[in-house]
Structure formats: structure tokens, C-alpha cells
Amino acid sequence: MEAKEATKSFGGLVAVNKVDMHINEGEVVGLIGPNGAGKTTFFNLITGIYETTSGEINFLGQPIKKSKPYEIAKLGIGRTFQNIRLFKSMTALENVMVGQYCRTHANLLGAILRTKAVRREQQQMKDKAIELLKFVGLEDKKDEIATSLPYGDQRKVEVARALATEPRLLLLDEPAAGMNSREKVEMQQLIKRIQEKGYTVLLIEHDMKLVMGICDRILVLDYGNKIAEGLPAEIQKSKEVIEAYLGKGGAA
Ligand SMILES: Nc1ncnc2c1ncn2[C@@H]1O[C@H](COP(=O)(O)OP(=O)(O)OP(=O)(O)O)[C@@H](O)[C@H]1O
């Protein structure tokens, strides 16, 4: 993924201002910044919810245009949301299976007639969804209604559903928000295991311990501008970053 001077304005407000960035395959990159810095808007540009006002974002050599969520998933970008968006009244397993539909081959007629090929594919989907739930540590909760699970588990179901789209790039929007410290540690371990499986991750997260502990590289936005980029240790020491978080007086 590569952004070249990516810009998004809402009327007079420039939410993302000429941001350059790239993510290499296999990296975990953190996107941080104070509230309103433009992080979610940047995610929405990568996922085609918004179109850039100017500049461009390329993914696997193709420019990202305004697209429907399933088109972006098919392109190879999976995401989770700041506010959990699971399908109510569906089990954890069904929620994960929904993520796979952008990769299935069955056409409508085959699905209606429930042909042998369709049944075989559905069984494969189910097996794979169970495997993903096992990967996030929720195999024993597969038949529970997803939205009735504890908060931390719901976030894990969302991660499993995003993985089910077979993403080449996984975007995690505040995966540890609202979690207790035990759940945060589990989420950090899960992201580490996701990276070990070969996935590429871009992560928005306010929990500095988690960000610093897991990211290969960190990018900092403030008022839409990229104010710093570097290794976690470099970001922690950056005067610009400290000022952005604490205000100029706080950095003294
Ligand atoms: N749809 C929109 N219309 C108008 N302004 C918007 C819209 N979306 C975001 N903004 C504005 O753009 C700026 C960046 O917002 P954004 O949500 O991207 O920040 P953020 O870094 O994700 O913040 P947070 O950490 O609080 O989630 C803010 O000033 C916000 O009010």
C-alpha cells in the first residue's frame, strides 16, 4: 500500500493533508495521533469509503477508488471497526462465514439448488471459519450469538471475520478500545500471531503500550499532517510527537 500526498477535505476542513506513506508486506505499522488527527479518515480513504480530494492511494499497484465494502474486501483489504459492527442474531461462526463470501465461487442458481459443489464449498467455508475462531481463541464459543459475547471476544470475532476475507492488508481500528488490561495483552498477542502468519497490518490504536510493543514502524498524524514516522523508540523521543500529545507547554 502506498499513499502519495493523499488528501481529504470536508468543506474547508482538511482532515488528511498530503500524507505520504507506504506499508511493506509483512509489516505491522501503527497510525497514531491525538483525537481528530485524521486517522479514521485515512482508513476510510484506504477502504474506498471516501475518495481522495487530491493525491492517490495505490494498493498492489492499483489506485483505490470509491468502492463498496465487498469490492474492497475482494481487492484484498480487510478491516475491523472502531465501534464493533457484528451481525446481530448471528452466531460467532456465522459472522465469520459472512467474511468469506467475497471469496466464494457459487452462483445464485447453484446456491438455490444447493448443488453438490455448493454444499462442498459451504462445508469448506464452515471448516475454515472454525479454524479462524480457533486461531483467535474462540472455538468453544462458535455457536453463541456474537453480540452477546464479552466485549473482548466480540473484537476477536471481528478480527476473525476480517481474516476470513483473506486480506493482503488488514486494517485494525482501535482493536483494544474499551478492553481491560488482560484483554489488551491478549489482543497484542493475537496481532503478533497474525503477523507471524504472514499478514500485513495497519493499526490505529490509542494504547501506547500496545502500539510501542507491537509495531515495526509508527506514523503520527496531527491535524491531518504527518508529523513523524519511524521506529517505536524514535517516535517515543520525538519532540513533535510529544508536543502534539501534550501541547507545547507539556513538552518542556
Ligand atoms: N464525514 C465528515 N464530515 C466532516 N468532517 C469530518 C468527517 N469525518 C471526519 N471529520 C473531521 O475530520 C477530522 C479528522 O477526523 P477523524 O475521525 O479522521 O480523526 P481521528 O484521528 O480518527 O480521531 P479519533 O481518534 O477521535 O477517532 C476531525 O476534525 C473530524 O471532525
UniProtKB/TrEMBL annotation:
Record-level GO cellular component terms: plasma membrane
InterPro entries recorded: AAA+_ATPase, ABC_AA/LPS_Transport, ABC_transporter-like_ATP-bd, BCA_ABC_TP_C, P-loop_NTPase
Pfam family, one: BCA_ABC_TP_C
Entry coiled-coil feature ranges: none
BP terms from Gene Ontology: D-alanine transmembrane transport; L-alanine transport; L-isoleucine import across plasma membrane; L-valine import across plasma membrane
Entry keywords, A to Z: ATP-binding, Nucleotide-binding, Transport
Name of the protein in its database record: Amino acid/amide ABC transporter ATP-binding protein 1, HAAT family (TC 3.A.1.4.-)
Species of the source: Alkaliphilus peptidifermentans DSM 18978
